[in-house]
Amino acid sequence: MSIKSSFIVPPLWLRLSTVYSPTGRLAFSVLNRPPPKYDGHVPLTSTERGVLAVGSAMTSLFDPRRGDLIATLGETTATPYFIHRLRDAMLSSHTGRRILRDRPRVTSRTMSLQCLRTLPDKTVGRVYASWLDREGVSPDTRDSVRYIDDEECAYVMQRYRDCHDFYHALTGLPVMVEGEVALKAFEFANTLLPMTGLSLFAVFRLKPAERSRFRYTYLPWALMNGLRSKDIINIYWEEQLERNVDDLRTELGIEKPPDLRQTRRALKEQRKAAKEKRERIGGLTDA
Question: Cα dihedral angle (92, 95, 99, 105), rounded to 10 degrees?
Fold first, then answer.
């Protein structure tokens, strides 16, 4: 047997997904994966991270209801720079540092929706609970972070994800595609997370009237308010539940956008009234 025939060349995908240490020894590959750094952590090679990012981006564009893919896109595109920038924003804030120290989670077990529903109107907790009830959303639907290697940065991403519904409640934007795109534009201007910017490609799935409304109303609102607002990642929501929501918006520098559901409802009623008028005119003409 020749030397050449006794050497088996590894598959291309294995060679591409292998990282070597400075000494030339095998350091990290799909067959030599380091142990997880926290519960649920899945270490990835650079190639695996890139494949997951591209695959989740393409699939979620055609099916934006796949929250698991949007979560994967968020994690695989946030490193190495963007999630560290967000972590540093928390470290530069007294409240952000307390959040990192306490590590609170937003779930139905840590926040009693039954108690929040009894709070006075216009309080943050009441507005949050009312938004969840109106949209049929639960705080328990957020996936756990898996693909961010740094344990502290993984919590930062988890905190952003857990608080997403608070951002909805604060702005009043619904969970429909049009509302999600508007909120993602706001989040991108405020957090710079790539996933929030990439999500804006979903605007091409909107109807012409919805795209026009986003372009001339909700995109300008999102960029202006996201850029001028304080870092929303530093809001300790658990301590704001009994506070007046308008006071919180004022402190953060956020103006509530036009009510999207009310706008869509009014336009629907206008179209219905115009259709009935045309039918009446048509009936009189035929007579």
Answer: -130
